[in-house]
Amino acid sequence: MREGEDVKISNMRFDIITIFPGFFAGIFEHGIVRRAQAERLVTIETNDLRGFTHDRHRTVDDRPFGGGEGMVLKPEPLAEALASLGIGPKEARRDDAKTRVVLLSAQGQPFTQKLARELANLDRVALICGRYEGVDERINQLYCDLELSIGDYVLSGGELAAAVVIDATMRLIPGVLGNEASGEFESFGVPDAEIGTDAQGVPRSQHGAGGLLDYPHYTRPAEFAGLRVPDMLINGDHRQIRRWRREQQLRKTLANRPDLLEHATLSAEDRKLLEAIRQEKL
Ligand code: SAM
Question: Which residue, 6, 121, 248, 255, shows the most beta carbons closer than 10 Å to its own?
Answer without folding.
Answer: 248
